Amino acid sequence: MQEFTGNDPELNGKFLGTITADFVKVCDELKEAAYQMTSRNISKYPVFVLCREDQPIGVLLHSRDESGLDWNYSFAMAEEFVQRGLLSEAGYENFCGSFKDPGEFCCLFVVSPDFTNFVFLPYPED
């Protein structure tokens, strides 16, 4: 079960580079999807799952095989992490208290053999 700890200090620069290289290509679409979810009161906590393999969390937005990206991008919400038992109730409360403005920051859940955690990246300024 995942316990929310925020941006992890173990996230090294090289690994972060692979994430941000894709992120700049899809960030406008992710920001719009987060806006739609929050403005329609579907969830206050949109999360984008990044994984290089297929995984069952969320709805696939971009397949790395079809999009020429390094990562698959799926759209989910924090509530799904609780429903699936990936985030405890206490972890969910901590997550909600630490969640950053989804209009300014993108919440990513990165799943990799080397690193699995939530990461908040700021959207590039226009």
Describe this structure in words.
This protein is an alpha+beta fold. It has one domain. It contains four helices and five strands. It has helices spanning 13-39, 64-67, 78-83, 89-98, and strands spanning 46-51, 59-62, 72-77, 105-111, 116-122. The chain has a five-stranded mixed beta sheet with strand order 2-3-1-4-5. The protein is globular.
In short:
Helices cover 37% and strands 24% of the residues. It is α+β, with helices and mostly antiparallel strands and 126 residues long. It has a five-stranded mixed sheet.
Which short descriptors sum up this protein?
126 residues; alpha+beta; five-stranded mixed sheet; 4 helices
List the domain count as a whole number. Answer: 1
Average pLDDT level = 88
Q: Briefly note the structural class of the backbone.
A: alpha+beta
What helical percentage do the residues reach? 25-40%
Radius of gyration: 13 Å
Q: What is the straight-line distance between the termini?
A: 37 Å
Strand-helix topology:
Layout: H1 13-39, E1 46-51, E2 59-62, H2 64-67, E3 72-77, H3 78-83, H4 89-98, E4 105-111, E5 116-122
Parallel strand pairs: 1-4
Antiparallel strand pairs: 1-3, 2-3, 4-5
